[in-house]
């Protein structure tokens, strides 16, 4: 792709649509489903295209959505500060800031728990990045 970084808007949405279509397999379907859950959790979410990757923001980055051969990875920019009582985070657990969810083929993510993570990330961004509670272990 010739474009490196894009700001919010229709062009970023189109690039995300294109990425989902290009994948054309379980990874595209997984990314599409996670995008839908993000939009349900935050109807005002802004889609961006940065680092050749879909990015969802609202008052700061909520998460990114990357696809690899064997996994779709959703990385939460401030995931270490978020409560995760259902333990969706299963990657980047040693990071002091980020946390990620790796989704493998055939795996289903708890939709309500995922939307709760998106809402918690939104709340954290609105609070200026200051965590107000304990994160789940």
Automatic annotation (TrEMBL):
Q: Which Pfam families match?
A: DUF1801 (PF08818)
Q: Kindly give the InterPro entries that the UniProt entry links to this protein.
A: YdhG-like
Q: Check the record and name the SUPFAM superfamilies matching this protein.
A: YdhG-like
Query: So which domain of life are we looking at?
Result: Bacteria
**By what name is this protein known?**
DUF1801 domain-containing protein
Q: Which intervals hold domain YdhG-like?
A: 27-122
């Amino acid at each position: 792709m010739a474009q490196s970084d894009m700001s919010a808007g229709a062009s970023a949405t189109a690039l995300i649509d294109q990425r989902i279509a290009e994948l054309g397999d379980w990874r595209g379907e997984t990314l599409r489903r996670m995008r839908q859950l993000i939009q349900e959790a935050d109807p005002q979410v802004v889609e961006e295209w940065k680092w050749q990757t879909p990015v969802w923001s609202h008052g700061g980055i909520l998460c990114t959505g990357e696809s690899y051969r064997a996994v779709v990875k959703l990385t939460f920019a401030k995931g270490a500060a978020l409560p995760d009582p259902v333990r969706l985070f299963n990657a980047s657990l040693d990071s002091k800031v980020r946390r990620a969810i790796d989704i493998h083929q055939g795996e289903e993510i708890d939709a309500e728990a995922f939307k709760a993570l998106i809402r918690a990330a939104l709340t954290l961004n609105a609070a200026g990045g200051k965590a107000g509670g304990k994160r789940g272990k």
